[in-house]
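Researcher: Re-running this chain for the archive, since the previous output was lost when a drive failed. Same request as before.
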Amino acid sequence: MNIETLRQQTPGCNYKVHFNNAGASLPPQQVLDAITAHLQLEAITGGYEAADLKATEINEFYESTARLLNCKARNIAFTSSATNSFARALSCIPFRAGDYILLANEDYISNQIAFLSLQKRFGIKILRAASLAQGGVDVNDMKRLMDLYNPRLVSLTHVPSNTGLIQPVEQVGQLCAERNIYYLVDGCQSAGQIPADVQKMKCDFFTATMRKFLRGPRGAGFLYVSDRVIEQRLEPLFIDLRGAEWIEADAYSPRMDARRFEDWELPYAIVLGSKAAIDLALTLGLDEIQKRNSLLCEKIRSALATLPNITLLDKGPNQSSIITIKVSNQKAPDTLQALRAQNINTSVGYRNFALIDFDAKKVEWALRISPHYYNTEAEADLLLQAIQQLVAS
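Model: Regenerated structure tokens:
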């Protein structure tokens, strides 16, 4: 991995020290070129006509994403975001009043709200497995709850956005497979920073966004749908002409692949930009990306642990490229703006973003630092120096 070349291909590196990759990474030139080239083609050719001319390249998005997740192109749908993917997947589950959904305390805020909405509207019941003292969901408690309540769906966030934790998605997937329970994995923060193999996870759905560690455009995501969901003809609540064929006045037939979950109207420039981002990740290799990120995170975590007024908040035996800290002598907006004033990008998570997890950690907010492979050790030193100055003030 030639870091200098990768930085030369990333225009934003000339302007910012960017440690907000869990929010939105700096896109590489390949992504920018793919998007702008197609927009220019649409401008001079027409939107429909441009899509027809680039049909082969557009279809390659599904092939590239399938390689990323170790599945087939028929299992992939393009969406506008991870949350959009999650909602489409959730809407196809044949819930009945009284059904249970089993999840973890650390699951993403939007997922938690979606489950609460189902509970309020349709009488679905929520179960939350216990968390281990050392961090992460208690797999044994998940097993106990599965056997006791036979949930209709198990949902788990692979890498929660509010902490560096990596959840044991493969262990939970094995339990679901043995019990024939639908399994939904939120890969919003994991896609692009660690390997994600849906065959090993044994999941029915995997949701992701492009803007984070995959370094793609905003307004783009994807959804993996298992063969069994496709064959069972489960479909999103609001299916359109992209996902189904109107065969009689009062009947339609869903298409037999994951594009059943897409809308007919797609932003094809963004699709092509997403393909370029995924191809870059595949070229670099997810194992190599994870190794590089681990080195950067170890450097930053080790240094932060020595600073006064700083508490590392991340738990779990396996850590991702998300570092969360409590800064005891500062306010959240002041911390964020002080770093931005030095052209250092980070982000802040508040209690309502991760209510159960933050209450357990007794914090109202946390500074989130998320390195990625194109960051340098020198940038890490600048970040650490800035935080050291901040906590000393």
